[in-house]
Amino acid sequence: MSGNTFGKLFSVTTFGESHGPAIGCVIDGCPPGMALSEADIQPELDRRKPGTSRHVTQRQEADRVEILSGVYEGVTTGTPIALLIRNEDQRSKDYGNIADTFRPGHADYTYWHKYGVRDPRGGGRSSARLTAPVVGAGAVAKKWLREHYGTEVLAYMSQLGDIEVPFEGWEHVHANPFFAATGDAALVARMEEAMDQLRRAGDSIGARINVVASRVPVGLGQPIYDKLDADIAYAMMGINAVKGVEIGAGFASVCQKGSEHGDELTPQGFVGNNAGGVLGGISTGQDITVSIAIKPTSSIRVPRRSIDKEGNPVMVETFGRHDPCVGIRATPIAEAMLALVLADHALMQRAQCADVRVTTPKI
Amino acid sequence: MSGNTFGKLFSVTTFGESHGPAIGCVIDGCPPGMALSEADIQPELDRRKPGTSRHVTQRQEADRVEILSGVYEGVTTGTPIALLIRNEDQRSKDYGNIADTFRPGHADYTYWHKYGVRDPRGGGRSSARLTAPVVGAGAVAKKWLREHYGTEVLAYMSQLGDIEVPFEGWEHVHANPFFAATGDAALVARMEEAMDQLRRAGDSIGARINVVASRVPVGLGQPIYDKLDADIAYAMMGINAVKGVEIGAGFASVCQKGSEHGDELTPQGFVGNNAGGVLGGISTGQDITVSIAIKPTSSIRVPRRSIDKEGNPVMVETFGRHDPCVGIRATPIAEAMLALVLADHALMQRAQCADVRVTTPKI
Amino acid sequence: MSGNTFGKLFSVTTFGESHGPAIGCVIDGCPPGMALSEADIQPELDRRKPGTSRHVTQRQEADRVEILSGVYEGVTTGTPIALLIRNEDQRSKDYGNIADTFRPGHADYTYWHKYGVRDPRGGGRSSARLTAPVVGAGAVAKKWLREHYGTEVLAYMSQLGDIEVPFEGWEHVHANPFFAATGDAALVARMEEAMDQLRRAGDSIGARINVVASRVPVGLGQPIYDKLDADIAYAMMGINAVKGVEIGAGFASVCQKGSEHGDELTPQGFVGNNAGGVLGGISTGQDITVSIAIKPTSSIRVPRRSIDKEGNPVMVETFGRHDPCVGIRATPIAEAMLALVLADHALMQRAQCADVRVTTPKI
Amino acid sequence: MSGNTFGKLFSVTTFGESHGPAIGCVIDGCPPGMALSEADIQPELDRRKPGTSRHVTQRQEADRVEILSGVYEGVTTGTPIALLIRNEDQRSKDYGNIADTFRPGHADYTYWHKYGVRDPRGGGRSSARLTAPVVGAGAVAKKWLREHYGTEVLAYMSQLGDIEVPFEGWEHVHANPFFAATGDAALVARMEEAMDQLRRAGDSIGARINVVASRVPVGLGQPIYDKLDADIAYAMMGINAVKGVEIGAGFASVCQKGSEHGDELTPQGFVGNNAGGVLGGISTGQDITVSIAIKPTSSIRVPRRSIDKEGNPVMVETFGRHDPCVGIRATPIAEAMLALVLADHALMQRAQCADVRVTTPKI
């Protein structure tokens, strides 16, 4: 409960720093009897890992996952599943004045004031690298959800800076380096050019990611506090660099009338999904639709004003291998977080409402 | 942990339904030695209660709070503080076909499918009335924060439907029925007219609320998962009708460059607050700034298509006393939720980092 | 999580002090669809309440329970069930020097040092009176267990001071004022005489209580940390005045050989129950057998040495209505705690292992 | 919260099985700024490890601990500390019929029925080997307690089967293979002879361990539910093979009068410690004294009746390297668990009562 555990029944506790010996997590609560091996997890990690295109950091990390426990003869036993990823890129390097100054927009400042000590190597625990164990845990949650409910969780980039990218189909997502759901080659080229310019300028940019879960069981979520949408917001805002979260119509709801927003029902199902698949904190059975805002990374080459630990003014430039748009690698992370929330609530629903049988046809 | 408890160290467990005998909460973890009486709590409840203007529901509820425990001779003892609010308006009324049908955009549908049973009286537990105990608990958190850190948490309505309301100063917030931070009488008149039209039309509208916490200690928040901003997102999305949450620059971050977004530091302090007072999940000591989207209420007189429990098509109209814009009464709720998050993290910070003394001058 | 909540999925949060306005609890996680009314709870409270014989405190409290929420038309809705018991005996009385001194063996001393403030009225929160809400919550858990598994939880006094009382059958438990499972009138008379002597001497005595749960499902308990027996030990040691807990053979295991202790299995079932129904932290399906040691109450008339708040030596005598043996009223409390542990683990088992179907015939 | 996490603020999540790739734990909540290296942890593990005398299992395991995270330049950073211990003894061996039968007194039976799958290699997760990570985590807690309060936690064996061993001083504990606090060579010889006989007979025996924490701050513990003694009972009963827990006078309290049990206070301090250092669930500042009963191990060579997975009768003998008395290696485990409970409550106390200043001289 000291902050590094996510979830109540299907829970994940992570550990590690960017340049320490290893990073990893312990997944507690995955039900027994599910086939599981590293082959279920590694592909998800590979989607997140650096170096997949020139638009993301070129840091070389194999990010090879090892299952340390909780699986016997290829099947989960119901005991904790520990995942370990050794850090290969631990070389001691020149951090310049990073260790003694604070990068604008970076957690340097707050870690120092909170803990009185910080690990400056690659951002330490605040590094986006720490999303790797989460992606690993999410792979386990995804598999369990798929096997039990047919649930699928998928994400795509819907906006890169001011370039909005319409959704044209899931088949496009892995056919471009941005995980955008478009087949429009000109649009992709525009994105590539924007990224190349940024890289040359040593600057970075924000992005918007959409996440969708389909075939979600109806009834997930607790009506007050642990609402499904509240837990989704918690999960999403907890991803590095996220500054905003929307469910369903999101901020567009502000300008909607009730007669427009409330999704009507017919015997054939809901008409529209302004709710984003959640009403009163509980899943409706429709697609869960989430949209998140990712800020531009703070580690840039553009010189910026800051202070050092003594409070003296300094200029800070961050050299090294960084992502001009951290949003690009965020799609598997967002999927993982949503999957973990759903698996957690699915177990909670089994605990509390295992005996419920309603008469209404589920639509 | 079954969903009805909010917070870990400064925690609130609520109970009750809109038209049951009573609603209330148990506040666990409020430190001992603080002066506390109903007079500290009642004014906050009065701000939230119905009937304060023609623009909110006319339901008559005194919402008189009683402290049942945890206070001895006017001082908190460190034991649980139970708050009780008796429901006065329990009269049996004609719910028409509400009990057997599902209002579009309402939790009716999901409660029924989750629990197989539901309390249709005034929305039961999904009623916005259940925010009253939260406001009560928030008053206790606010007082504790104020006494220990000088922290203040304030909210205002920044948008009503498509009417944007600029922030012109806190002194205006209680001088108009919308809790808007404007002294522009023409703008307020425009809002009143918009509301009157809606009420006549039997329709409802969304709103945007901004919440600001000032004089927040630096160092609150756990870097992974229980980040301060993640917990704020959880708290805000958990408020009835909220569909979106932003911290700092929020969704505007998507179009920002890193050289623009990252708030520079000087010996005199931060230059700008795109971060919204949180970096790496930890408070910077700047103002915490949050913005939330509130959907239009689903209980409207405009007839809408729905189904009944057997899945047959029906038309639904909701008569009775309802809020054309639930956002109007949401400011004290948003303040309460943010105060509860801050108090919780402040206690956590005392637990973990009580010995930390950094050399940097806090700015 | 600040200490006043018991259980994870079937959880109870209590509040109140002995002489404050009210005591009560919030039960969170009771599944929906179970018939429930005050009539299910009141009889359990009546067993615990004072004044049932001359051997217990003569304080007059009706201990009338009111269900405030979570039940609609006589059926649980899956939302929190709040129980309220008003304190009738709040008369201001002369506490003599109790408020400024510390009774030997009493929580006076520790409350004062922990909180810096304490409620001396009747022991405040440390009063045994605070077990009343627990008994109420236990009644709900008992009913749920009975309906779902046929589980019964029963307790009896097996020792009063140095008088050991053999188990002769459950039918005797309510036929004597000590809840002893004996039909031996001479033995009961011996107990009555011992109690009368104590009362005249203004002294108190300890007791041993045995608790048995029968028809417990196999598979309850988490193998490390949240073992069923660990949670039972936590629950039992948490009852006021308990100083020791045994499961199964308990301390007798120290002198046993492995060939003697390990309960053999045959196709007809286990041979013996040294395990007390728990192996490796998980229920075997046999009876859960627990034994607890209850210390003599510290509130006695015999003068004792102590100090006051300034550290000066004083003599302390406690006048008023007290129990010469708090063990007498402890049987419903021990039953309630065991029932709550079992209900909690039963829900956890549904969450995690709902799909498990083993081939071995359950014995 | 799925059972494999211990503690709330200073928490430990363990993972691993006896013969899987590795075992370990994640310690979350250890405050920043404490010097820490493997050298602080390894000695505690070495006390617990097998093969230290002929009286314990001869399994060869180096039990070499590696710190994976949470420490930078030899100092804790406030982030999770992961400990990893690779299993060296993973050789595939002949488990005979263990995988298909149930050892009397062993968790085989319950794991199978709970999970429908089990890892039979060396007991899998139910192995006493899983106490190694706990001992590692306990070493961290011990160091923190020592540095902050001077607290020391020590244990000794006070009874081996029916041989009672009086406490004669801590200096004796590491001078005999039983961790007994006696300098009586004849008594030790009697214990050795008893053990040699048992080993020859292929049988096992129980033991009693006493644990003492000295220089404990006053005020640790929450008065209802998370009482210090309740959490100690939970911690102790959760150790493999423990069947009973006593605090202070324990079961002897049953026969005590109130005038005898309640520890008097004088300006110089408490007179006696029947309370075992806890009153009303809160520490008094005296020594915390705990005693636990450890059952004889169930893995013995003596043939015993059991059944196989199909329910057929079988005879079971357990060959291999086992402990004739698991109590011998239990002292570091009991110390670790008590240290973890105290560290957890110490952090909670800082959170809730950081401002409390009482006037009474602490005695």
Automatic annotation (TrEMBL), chains A, B, C, D:
<comment type="subunit">
    <text>Homotetramer.</text>
</comment>
<keyword id="KW-0456">Lyase</keyword>
<dbReference type="InterPro" id="IPR020541">
    <property type="entry name" value="Chorismate_synthase_CS"/>
</dbReference>
<feature type="binding site">
    <location>
        <begin position="125"/>
        <end position="127"/>
    </location>
    <ligand>
        <name>FMN</name>
    </ligand>
</feature>
<feature type="binding site">
    <location>
        <position position="54"/>
    </location>
    <ligand>
        <name>NADP(+)</name>
    </ligand>
</feature>
<keyword id="KW-0274">FAD</keyword>
<dbReference type="InterPro" id="IPR000453">
    <property type="entry name" value="Chorismate_synth"/>
</dbReference>
<comment type="function">
    <text>This reaction introduces a second double bond into the aromatic ring system.</text>
</comment>
<feature type="binding site">
    <location>
        <position position="321"/>
    </location>
    <ligand>
        <name>FMN</name>
    </ligand>
</feature>
<keyword id="KW-0521">NADP</keyword>
<keyword id="KW-0285">Flavoprotein</keyword>
<dbReference type="Pfam" id="PF01264">
    <property type="entry name" value="Chorismate_synt"/>
</dbReference>
<feature type="binding site">
    <location>
        <begin position="295"/>
        <end position="299"/>
    </location>
    <ligand>
        <name>FMN</name>
    </ligand>
</feature>
<feature type="binding site">
    <location>
        <position position="48"/>
    </location>
    <ligand>
        <name>NADP(+)</name>
    </ligand>
</feature>
<dbReference type="GO" id="GO:0004107">
    <property type="term" value="F:chorismate synthase activity"/>
</dbReference>
<keyword id="KW-0288">FMN</keyword>
<feature type="binding site">
    <location>
        <position position="280"/>
    </location>
    <ligand>
        <name>FMN</name>
    </ligand>
</feature>
<protein>
    <recommendedName>
        <fullName>Chorismate synthase</fullName>
        <ecNumber>4.2.3.5</ecNumber>
    </recommendedName>
</protein>
<dbReference type="InterPro" id="IPR035904">
    <property type="entry name" value="Chorismate_synth_AroC_sf"/>
</dbReference>
<keyword id="KW-0057">Aromatic amino acid biosynthesis</keyword>
<comment type="pathway">
    <text>Metabolic intermediate biosynthesis; chorismate biosynthesis; chorismate from D-erythrose 4-phosphate and phosphoenolpyruvate: step 7/7.</text>
</comment>
<comment type="similarity">
    <text>Belongs to the chorismate synthase family.</text>
</comment>
<feature type="binding site">
    <location>
        <begin position="240"/>
        <end position="241"/>
    </location>
    <ligand>
        <name>FMN</name>
    </ligand>
</feature>
<keyword id="KW-0028">Amino-acid biosynthesis</keyword>
